[in-house]
Design a protein that fits this description.
3-stranded mixed β-sheet; alpha+beta
Length: 83
């Protein structure tokens, strides 16, 4: 995954100057906070969070639907294995 180095903020800087993090989010859409020099946290605008959360929910619903279909199509096998 490629990360824009312009949006990286060390934890110390984020703690001492959170308004800097907020400005980055306003300007660039996100900020990545580093912990021990590794990307650890992502700060995003709340609207972006809602979009991400909705995509995750859609993905979970799709996985559940596929799992239900597989179970339904293979019920005999599962019942036999359960004996």
């Amino acid at each position: 995954m490629m990360i824009d180095t312009n949006i990286l903020v060390p934890m110390k800087d984020a703690n001492q100057n959170f308004s800097k993090v907020v400005r980055m989010v306003d300007e660039d859409g996100m900020a990545v906070i580093l912990k021990n020099n590794k990307p650890r946290y992502v700060v995003v605008d709340f609207d972006e969070y809602n979009t991400i959360a909705a995509a995750i929910q859609m993905r979970k619903a799709k996985i559940d639907s596929i799992a239900d279909k597989l179970i339904e199509e293979n019920m005999e096998v599962f019942l036999e294995l359960g004996k």
